[in-house]
Amino acid sequence: MANLPNPDSEIIDNLVDLETIEAITDFGDAFDIADKLGVDLEGLNEIEEIKERLTMEFKKSLPDFINFKEKVCQDMKATSKIDGEKCDKLLDLLEKTKTNFLKNADENSRELMILEEALQTENILNSLREDFDFKIQSLNNKTCSFVVAGETSAGKSKFLNLLLEEDLLPSKLEPCTSVITRLSYDKTRHAKIIYRDNIEKAPEIYENVTKDQLKPLIFEENLDKREKTSDVKEVQIFLPSRILENGLVLIDSPGIGENEDMDKVIEDFVEENHVMGFIYIIKSDNGGGMDEDRLIKLMKIILQKQSLKGNRSSFRFDPRCAMFVCNIWDRVTEKQTVYDYIIKRLNQYWPHFNEQKVVKFSTTNAEREIDQNQDYIIKDYQKLLIVLQTMHEEALDDRIKACYVWIRNVLIRSIQHLKMLAKKLN
Questions:
Q1: Which of 66, 89, 105, 294 makes a 20 to 30 Å CA pair with 280?
Q2: What is the rounded CA–CA span in Å between residue 365 and residue 46?
Q3: Using one digit for the tens of pLDDT, what is the confidence trace for 27-45?
Q4: How confident is the model over 200-215, as pLDDT tens digits?
Q5: Cα–Cα distance, 121 to 111 (Å, whole number)
């Protein structure tokens, strides 16, 4: 009699699917399936970690597979394109409206002054010419700036390196970042060093900038020197990073609450720039789970400085456009207790807090899987990218809506005031 095939072997061969992987309960089954899929399990010690890697490998083998991060970046780029088209239409409207308002300014200066004063009284604008110019300038700058801040030793630089897919920003255990670092897209990798106004020194350009070149510019390790404001106002880094290609700009900020000079660096930046989103990195393995004092102080700085711009800026930071990354989550033992505490504190202190924008995350685990295979994007990293994409879309939408509401209010109230003025003249 001929030898029959082993039915158990056929079942294993045919049933290596997501359900089979999800049903794994012991290492023996995991190793068997890993062998069949050709997956290296090096560095993994937990069943759940093994199952996640097997799942990622299985999905990668499907014919319609696309790298998750690549898909998110493509979607964000498409969103930016649509936003650009909306901006162009609004810019055309702003330019035409400004021209119609100011074309006869000299001949009708008194009437224009009366109209401007009326709109100022209603808190709609500060100056017709300046406000129009500011709106036009803001819409012409189609970037979307998110401030990235974090607690001491929360892994902010390592987190940013992961997002950028670049081992560029130096990271240490103690507080490091001492100047604003602006991360933007460009086809070539370079850095521009901007010095403070009181420093008579021209901007410096570093072509193909390296981590070693950036370290002394961005970080001041000497604690005595960190008490003083750096001569460098801002380090602008340009990278061919796909997460930045959509116009997203990440602002790596110094730690808040370390000293007054460091706080002033952040205050000046927020006052001079439009912050559209906020990413806060929490050191989850910290005893208390979160340093809320620093978070509250930073939130107050952003909200107060943005509000001081008054009507000149209709694009104010919306605290709903914020993500909280509970980093180093792999080191947390009492996970539910720590998570509940963080959520409770954020609910208490952050305006319009949305728990859906809290991500339990391990930069170390995400890096480990990507180092194994660039298509291995773990679930927590996928959620983080989705939240980032959502915030990006919300921020761009808020900018368009804010500008539209402003120009609508200017036009409606101007027509009403002009009608009243005409009646008085008659």
A1: 66
A2: 12
A3: 999 999 999 999 999 889 9
A4: 788 889 999 998 888 8
A5: 15
